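mind reviewing these tokens:
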Amino acid sequence: MAWDEWEQVKAQVAERHTARLQLNGLPGEGGRADPSGGGGGGGAGTLRHKGGPWTKAAGTADGLQTSTITAKVDLRKAHDCISSGLAGLSSLGSLKSVLTSWDERLGRLREECSSLEPKLRQVAVDFAEVDAEVAERTKAVVVPGTRRGE
């Protein structure tokens, strides 16, 4: 292998191992992406997060838990009233099958909502903490040609 070829192979290997990618896809200082987040960049937008949607979703999941319990009680009461009037008819068996099916579905829905509600609330808390940390870190970023507060 000639010396020039050897130097070319070494340069290619070095390039593969040192190149990094930033989330915005722009190169950092020296033409390479800066994994520390301190150089380069240039996104114009502002990423903001509010816990409101997550908290609202958690409240909806909580409300659905209550609604499904109420629906199951109402369904059982309605079935009890009907079953006494349909005694001896073959349709009573079908109604019992439907009651059992809906009872199981509503139970699974309540369990799912019960599982989701605390997770959604935790997402709101976690994002708020991450947002505060990111906000603190961004104060150290200097963008050429701008002054803070403008």
The chain has three helices and no strands. The radius of gyration is 30 Å. The mean pLDDT is 75.
